[in-house]
Design goal:
heterodimer; A: alpha+beta; Heat Shock Protein 90; 54% helix; rod-shaped; B: Rossmann fold; Arc Repressor Mutant, subunit A; 2 domains; four-stranded antiparallel β-sheet; elongated
Chain lengths: 472, 235
């Protein structure tokens, strides 16, 4: 909206500049034009015979001639001024001399006729007159060469004319100002929905603008763009849903066969008819089946979290109690003497309640603890600490084992683009993971997804030996 | 029916191979009467003739789903139901339990877990108040002999009675013997409250309990503290 107001303001400003510029150019042009024509010998304003006055009368003193004498000087003067004929009338109206007199002209003119052509035309010839002592000179130019208009203005008006000019200028300016404001406002109004529409589009919202007024075609195009975006979003969502449902379907279908593998492997493991080696092999089958179970569960959860199809069951719970229970469960599974789990839960957390999906958060921390155990078969010290921090809960799992590989850290901390996502070959960003890191990355990815789903922060520190989770 | 192994179990699943395997697992465990149904129709037919003691029910059946089958069963019988399904969605779990199922297990499962859960349901339903064996439980902790029934810790030379709270703490630990019981779980079991505010109370009770059942209370042999987490009864 601000942008539009800025555009509106600029539009008004520019219009003003244009108006002022136009006035300046006109005034300048007029001045230049007038100066040129008034000063130079342009034929725009046909000149009269004023310069002849001295020449015609001057002959009286030099020569004893009674009447008008056509000298070369006068002739040259007339021709240079585009005159084509000359008559000299005496006081009675008789033509006493003529030069190139057109045939339709008479030899005598009455007072009334003289008064007429003085102001207008002589038989359509534009003429100029000069009163001399030798008579009235009447010099004519070709027909249709000069436009004549006689104007009379009252003295009062002429005296006030400056004021009138001022009033007109002010009225013009006011009109320009009002018109600019009005037109600008109309544009502003017609562009306002467009501007709102563009804002909505940039925020990935669906729009539908009214397709009327000056900006109708733009509005239609914006609507079309919005429809296309909407269609693409729907298609993407549909694809994501299809993918999640597919994964969910596969993981569902694999469960019954896997139950049977586990069930029979369990039976073989306990069978008294088999040798120890054979029973050990059955135990391996059972153990690996458990891993497959974990993997498909992880895959399913990861895909649901990735495409926001895992609804968060938000509830209030006591994180301290939850973490103790989790740690106790891990120890109760008796991972072995070589592991040491040190719980370090801040006293400020007793009685502290937080909001979140208890099961998912437990899953996240459980994944971290189990990772530490699984990836350090020779044992390690694991520290599970929790503190209140920055108005939220900070949980950290730290061990002194092998740590998380650089490739995985890069993969998890750099936001992967969709195309570059896990190819399933254990190769991401050109990193090849060590053997057995596949489940590691899946587990950690779920941890990260769970934290992000809670709008928290996921961080790997201490060269891969510590994972910090922060929940708001 | 003298014990749970004489119960009649009805397995409903559309996969014959799977039925055969589960039947085998249960038979080896000692269950004597195991019947199978391959569809919802077969299960309904079965109910017209007789009533089992427990139904283990799949959800995806060729002629309907386990939820509606369970509702139909409920109109004629209050038999306990355990869902055993490949569906692991929370909503399925909640729907099943919400309909009144006694348990919900997701495939694939550990055979041992299935047996334990079935046994637990059967015990709870047909042998309430615990098995006779547990009621007469006597806890031997080295030279000390705790009788849960009379609430007395018996030593060679003397007998010390335990308070109700001490007894329930000990019982909770005994039920989870070998495993850690967190402070929170203990508080819930004994005081039915959150741990917050009970830190010292629990410590005092445990100290008194140790004085009664441990030979050397400052170096406990059985009632162990797991630092930062809870207590554990080592037997």
């Amino acid at each position: 909206m601000r942008d539009l107001l800025k555009i509106y303001g600029r539009y008004i400003g520019i219009t003003w500049v244009i108006a002022v510029f136009l006035i300046a150019v006109n005034l300048g042009g007029l001045l230049a034009f007038g100066a040129y024509h008034l000063a130079g010998d342009s034929n725009m304003f046909p000149r009269g015979l004023r310069e002849l006055e001295g020449i015609v009368d001057g002959e009286v003193s030099g020569k004893p001639a009674e009447g008008f004498v056509m000298t070369a000087e006068i002739k040259e003067y007339l021709e240079s001024r585009d005159f084509i004929f000359l008559l000299v009338l005496d006081d009675k109206g008789d033509v006493v001399y003529s030069w190139n007199k057109p045939p339709e002209l008479k030899g005598h003119y009455t007072l009334g006729e003289v008064a007429g052509f003085t102001r207008w035309y002589l038989e359509d010839y534009p003429v100029k007159l000069l009163r001399t002592q030798k008579g009235l000179l009447v010099a004519g130019r070709p027909k249709n060469s000069v436009w004549k208009y006689s104007m009379e203005v009252s003295v009062g008006f002429m005296n006030d004319s400056l004021a009138y000019v001022g009033i007109f200028v002010v009225m013009n300016l006011v009109t320009v100002f009002l018109v600019v404001i009005f037109l600008g406002y109309r544009y502003y109004k017609s562009l306002k929905p467009l501007s709102e529409g563009i804002c909505a589009l940039s925020e990935n919202r669906k729009i539908h603008l009214g397709e009327r007024g000056t900006a109708s075609s733009l509005a239609a195009q914006l609507n079309r763009a919005s429809d296309i975006l909407e269609a693409q979003r729907n298609a993407l969502e549909k694809r994501d849903t299809a993918r999640t449902e597919w994964i969910s379907g596969v993981s569902h279908d694999i469960r019954t066969p896997l139950s049977m593998i586990m069930g029979y492997a369990d039976e073989l493991e306990k069978s008294g008819n088999l040798s120890v080696q054979e029973r050990e092999k059955a135990a391996v089958i059972r153990g690996q089946s458990l891993k497959i179970r974990q993997l498909i569960e992880d895959l399913n959860l990861a895909s649901k979290l990735e495409y926001h199809m895992q609804p968060l069951r938000i509830s209030l719970f006591y994180p301290a109690s939850l973490l103790r229970q989790l740690a106790a469960e891990i120890i109760n599974q008796e991972p072995g003497e070589q592991y040491e789990l040190i719980p370090d839960i801040g006293p400020e957390l007793e009685g502290y309640q937080m909001e979140g999906d208890e099961r998912l958060i437990m899953r996240a921390v459980g994944n971290l603890l189990n990772n530490s155990i699984r990836h350090n078969p020779s044992g390690c010290r694991i520290c599970l600490s929790a503190r209140q921090k920055d108005g939220g809960l900070r949980i950290s799992v730290k061990d002194d084992g092998c740590g998380i590989g650089d490739g995985i850290i890069r993969y998890l901390t750099e936001e992967p683009s969709r195309e570059k996502e896990d190819t399933g070959k254990g190769e991401v960003y050109g990193e090849t993971f060590r053997e057995g890191e596949g489940p590691h990355i899946m587990g950690l990815r779920i941890v990260k997804q769970i934290v992000l789903a809670h709008k928290g922060v996921f961080r790997i520190q201490e060269k891969g030996h510590e994972v910090c989770l922060w929940f708001p | 029916m003298k014990n749970i192994f004489e119960s009649v179990l009805l397995l409903v699943d559309d996969n014959r191979e799977f039925l055969k395997m589960v039947k085998g697992i249960l038979e080896r465990e000692g269950f004597l009467f195991i019947d199978c149904a391959g569809s919802a129709g077969e299960a309904e037919e079965y109910f017209r003739k007789r009533e089992p003691e427990i139904v283990i029910l799949d959800i995806n059946l060729p002629d309907g789903d386990g939820f509606s089958l369970m509702q139909k069963i409920r109109t004629v019988s209050e038999v306990p139901v355990l869902f055993l399904s490949a569906r692991d969605e929370d909503c399925d779990r909640l729907l099943g339990l919400g309909l009144g199922a006694d348990d919900y297990m997701v495939k694939p499962f550990l055979p041992r877990e299935l047996i334990l859960r079935i046994s637990a349901i059967l015990k709870r339903t047909y042998f309430p108040k615990g098995s006779p064996a547990l009621r007469e439980e006597v806890l031997i902790l080295g030279a000390c002999r705790v009788d849960f029934k009379s609430g007395v810790a018996g030593w060679a030379d003397r007998e010390i009675s335990l308070t109700a709270k001490e007894l329930s703490i000990l019982r909770k630990l005994w039920e989870n013997r070998g495993n850690i019981v967190t402070f929170d779980q203990l508080c819930q079991a004994v005081w039915e409250d959150n741990y917050f505010g009970y830190e010292n109370t629990i410590m005092v009770h445990i100290r008194r309990l140790r004085e009664k059942i441990e030979e050397n209370p400052s170096k406990p042999q059985f009632l162990l503290t797991v630092r930062g987490l809870g207590y554990k009864l080592k037997v």
